[in-house]
Design goal:
With 121 residues, the protein is of the alpha+beta class. It has a single domain, classed as 2,3-Dihydroxybiphenyl 1,2-Dioxygenase, domain 1, CATH 3.10.180.10. Helix content is 18%, strand content 42%. The protein has an 8-stranded mixed beta sheet. The longest helix has 12 residues.
Length: 121
């Protein structure tokens, strides 16, 4: 199985200020989802991956990261841990996605997105 990069994310203390910065820098616009102050980036092209810019999760620090698709978030988090990483967020089911977060051995935060099951044919 391949593990494509599916999403990028920029999170900080002031999501609005970050969105203004990236909007002014790159011409991006954002669809903001209240009350989370999370903006889905419209990067203006067909190339590249989608992403979001917003506030950090409670109890976490600012970060820039990417999310990689995997068939099983829990198993990938365990493998990352066995290889010297640290689980930041266990497998979490949200309305539109199943995800998890870990730090690599140098403290970089990376995300995992569970691949959607193939539709029954």
């Amino acid at each position: 199985m391949t593990h494509p990069v599916m999403w990028f994310e920029v999170l900080g203390n002031d999501g609005g200020k970050l969105r203004r910065f990236y909007g002014d820098l790159f011409g991006w616009t954002f669809d903001v989802a209240p009350p989370s102050d999370y903006g889905i980036a419209r990067t203006g092209g067909a190339r590249g991956i989608m992403g979001g810019v917003g506030q950090v999760y409670p109890g976490t620090s600012s970060w820039v990261t990417f999310y990689t698709e995997t068939p099983n978030v829990a198993a990938s988090l365990e493998k990352a841990k066995a290889l010297g990483g640290k689980v930041v967020m266990p497998r979490t089911v949200l309305p539109d996605v199943i995800l998890g977060l870990f730090e690599d051995p140098e403290g970089h935060t990376l995300g995992l997105v569970e691949a959607a099951p193939a539709a029954a044919q």
